[in-house]
Amino acid sequence: MTRMRSLLIALCALLLFPSVAACGSDAAADAPKNVSAKTAALGTLTPGVIKVAVQPYAPYTSVRGGKIVGLDGDILASVAKKLGLTIKPQVTDFAGMLAGVQSRRVDITVGGVAWSADRQKQGLFTDPPYYSPPAMAVRSGKTYRTVDDLKGLALGTVEGYVWVKSIQSVPGAELHAYPDATGVFDDLGAGRVDVGFLDPLIIIAAQKQRPELKIRTEYLTPPTAAEVKAKPAYAYFQPYQTGFYLPKKATKLEQAISAQIDAMYTNGEMARLVEKYGGDPQQFLVPAADVAAARRGVDRPQDWTPPTVGRSGQ
To answer: What residue numbers bound the domain in which 89 lies?
Structure first.
């Protein structure tokens, strides 16, 4: 009778909650065979698999044949291989990338995600895989050097990007926010916006791929400390540090990935990948003076030193 009662309880559970059994089966099916204890201890949603949210954002991230390609894709692929993880991409938009991490539907998101004090409250950032100078897409024949030059202009960027707050603080400027970079370039080429704030490799790639737009890359002179003090949102017009973004509870995974990123600076692998996509390691892999100060005592120890390849000649 006791055994019969147990069988009946188990059958009822399967009938009432079939999704529980199905979910467990899916997880088992996704998990690679022979996952090492060290890899399993990283705490990914599925042992041995790292689920990655990305948006189509070449040459940083795009998905081809089930693999993430681009600068961030190559960096993550190298890290995942060393940690024994299989990458499983999920394509979404930028807002979906952040939401997927914050709700822990994915293990990580990559692709030019800027570190900010607000974002780190809801997730974990790795050490910077690279730094990004303040690049602007402008129409040929136009020159904008400083924040003052942007006053009263139509300024475009992608929804959710850190430049949104900066643009909103420019006197007289009109914000144009788009779901993706394509919208920024389309309106820039058509003259509906004057300047597009995007990651530099995106602009460099667009110049080559869409010559009919007649755009070029220009770098904004970073605002002074006094200007940032008067308008704190101007801080995002300065060079920023990117990071791979993970859920708050994924501390072991974040630490393991950060250690691999730091090693790639040291062994020259990171510089080679940046050069592969047309970037200058001296621009992408040398932190600005305020990078360490921004994170020390926030999500890094007081003695944290950001990774760097060092300045030429040093």
So the answer is: 35-131+241-295
